[in-house]
């Protein structure tokens, strides 16, 4: 009888399947007004992180110029700390790699890995005048951005000895840092807009970047005329998708990739030994999105509050899995490149990231989409 | 069939079989009754763009998400392929990702197909081959005699590694002309004029050159396309609509010296997903099928004779492309969208942008011979017949490929088109991106598309907008 019941249940499901006809955007939460959540996502999470990226990149450029002038170890150390500081908001912003960062190819331009060491050595060995314009227009993605700079300033997790750094490398360092700063200003301005007459506006004009309508405004207007997002639900789904994507990437690619291949060259940020810090900041980026804030700012109207209202246990689970993922990453001994054989700790981190990914996919997303 | 026979037979299990089969027949249009959306609802047939390869997301990752059948070892393979697709190649002999150049058009698959879509073309704003020295355009070049030009290959490599010189730079200028719909509303079209300058070797004059400028295609649903029941395409090619001047034609092409049905590319000029060709011709990465370096025999050759990517790796990329999910349709119950769907048919768009096709029984096959049974026996909605249609001299460029003349183009599959602005940040359409939005794309349809264009032109503004809302739901 039990078997028979099963078959009838199956039949019932099939009937149900025929009668269901619901479209995306027409679900139970379609009527929920996400306006303040989307506003705070843009104004309290995304734009502050890009603003921090932009300001830190300016400090980094200044540090490279100071170092080029002085040649002192202390100034090279400052370049290295400036690089790490700029890395923090960038890695946290990887929880939202959509919009201008993707449309303008800024992600590969800022963060391509691996760098093209063969070409880099050829460029350094040449008589080419090393200017920002040359780097911007004459060289590909593998010869600019964070990791090119990292290679020029770090070895084995520490600042290089200044006596080992050639004059050509110092010139290249400044040129790359300037292009990196310009890319960071571009990214911020495309989301936030840029005040007329400001220093940032002048810099963008000099490299022919037109900002147009700030993307942040369009994202906040999801579901209204003129927005590429047909509904607010799609925009909130984009928020959640960003978290899902980076939780997956850290676990299955950034950690599992090198662990499986055993190749240290697959480890991102290995000259600086900053890999685990990068990964942690990726997950802090998820926390920022979930709570709608940036690095300790007052949280805004958040996805967390929405989820808590629907299901308090799910909200608690997401929060605990974010913290568990951060803890598990931090439990991998530094540097990551020397821990590829530490199966216990790397497996634990991959599992914690998978757990976070699963709760976002199977419990949070269904609260929003149909 | 007489149901009474089973009822009289006294065979209870048979009765159950009958009940179940009746229900399944009743669901005939919905063969995937177990497919759930991200929210856990059962998907409706209208949502299911690609049967079991349908994925439920309307985000920037809509083109770059695996089908649901990709799990376990298949997922590992998908991720490997994804990484090879996106990771920039570097110059030199790094076994993991070397081989770029010496000249090239893109530095990774993803450099032109960002998020498995179409990277925004840069010529429109910069007037050169792109800011940062990069453009996602691919420019086919040949002599007026149909031969490769001395010192050049089949495409213009407008990028080069340090120490080498790009083969040339593409420049575009546009002439804007204003037109009116029947109701008086204005629209305008940009007619492009292309020129290649800065030739690195022989300067080729315009009268010596035949060129075709192409934007990258969306990589939506490639697995289903490759697994299509080709008899269905052959059947479509026999149908003619003289009243509308429409008759599609198959592009029979050569792959590995065998005549096959062309299905991919703007002129259906390929019978496969061109993974090997792309690595070789576009990136300069040599492989077993194309072992000759991109500049071999030319003055910028680097003398490389090594193979720079393995067939196993390329098969992973081939798998990745086959296994990409197709975004489900959105807003299918919206009344404006439903009205737009009717108008799409009224304007005869559906005669070339065929809504429904089927895959063959056995599914797909990769370049390494691996079988993909999951792609078999699927109903899918590409909105294309994959046939060539003469679109008139307005869109033609004199560049023929196999059976396709310069004026003939493949009906572009429209599935996923509604998410291009979300994924890639622009709404440039047609083979060279000259249309800046849906309206312009429709109004560029000449030749076999002219009747549809005229019907659209006479529609009310509300009807035109409804038709476009339907396209945005795809």
Describe the structure.
The complex is a heterodimer of chains A (370) and B (474). Chain A is mainly alpha-helical and 370 residues long. The longest helix of chain A is centred in the first third of the chain and has 36 residues, at 35-70. Chain A contains 16 helices and two strands. Chain A folds into two domains: 46-213, M75 peptidase, HXXE motif (A middle domain of Talin 1); 232-368, A middle domain of Talin 1 (Up-down Bundle), CATH 1.20.1420.20. Chain A is globular, with a radius of gyration of 23 Å. Chain A has helices spanning 2-19, 35-70, 73-92, 100-103, 106-111, 117-125, 132-138, 146-153, 167-192, 199-206, 215-220, 232-261, 275-291, 303-310, 312-330, 343-368; strands at residues 154-155, 158-159. Chain B is α+β, with helices and mostly antiparallel strands and 474 residues long. Chain B has two domains: 1-30, no CATH class; 51-472, no CATH class. Helix content of chain B is 26%, strand content 15%. Chain B has 14 helices and 18 strands. In chain B, strands 1-12 form a two-stranded parallel ribbon. In chain B, strands 2-4 form a two-stranded antiparallel sheet. In chain B, strands 3-7 form a two-stranded antiparallel sheet. In chain B, strand 14 and strand 15 form a beta hairpin. The relative contact order of chain B is 0.15. The chains are: A mainly alpha (370), B alpha+beta (474). At the A-B interface, helix 1, helix 4, helix 6, helix 7 and helix 12 of A face helix 2 and helix 11 of B.
